[in-house]
Amino acid sequence: MPTIKAAPFDFPFERDSIALIVIDMQRDFVEPGGFGATLGNDVSLLQAIIPTVAALIGGFREAGLPVIHTRECHRPDLSDCPPAKRLRGNPSLRIGDEGPMGRILIADAPGADIIPELAPASGEWVIDKPGKGAFYATGLQEYLDRRGIRQLVFAGVTTEVCVQTTMREANDRGYDGLLATDATESYFPAFKQAAIEMITAQGGIVGWAAPVAAVLEALDA
Ligand code: C5J
């Protein structure tokens, strides 16, 4: 069986059942004036991975394999945003408040859009998710199961929040998950490193990790 060179051991690559899931590469996290910036974060750290995420998406598209995108965002009436989420963060600019890119983290605001460099292609599924994990309150599991997808390559932001949460949800549901280490980023480099170690420790307790070049090599083989 073909493999992707990965940690903690080679990933058994199944071309017929693999998909790429790109988590929350939205203006709200990556550009100044969005949700990430309201929390005091340096968004330029996240901008640095745009070319590697684009290369990974390009590899999946060229191989004719599914690409799924997610957006963390809420309904305009905030009915899917619990107070436990809304009332934390920056008290002067909360989820739903008017910011420089429209209402913060609201589905129809410009800030919730996926950045133009990584715009979904026609036919690619874009999941709007109210939580950090992409399985919570979405039809993701049914979507994957209908298509026979059992393996997921993960990219996007932020590594230790939405990416890791979704990887853990996938792992508990029986999917094999591989994190593309240079196509994910955190506002906190130490948290990214820790997340990779947590995922791959103990014989891959959450999954695998590999650089984009290793994934592309397997896609090309
Ligand atoms: C965060 C995310 N960090 N997409 N969301 O709040 O990781």
Automatic annotation (TrEMBL):
GO terms for molecular function: hydrolase activity. The keyword Ligase does not apply. Keywords: Hydrolase. SUPFAM superfamilies: Isochorismatase-like hydrolases. Residues 19-206 form the Isochorismatase-like domain. Pfam families: Isochorismatase. PANTHER family: FAMILY HYDROLASE, PUTATIVE (AFU_ORTHOLOGUE AFUA_2G08700)-RELATED, PEROXYUREIDOACRYLATE/UREIDOACRYLATE AMIDOHYDROLASE-RELATED. This is Cysteine hydrolase. It comes from Seohaeicola zhoushanensis.
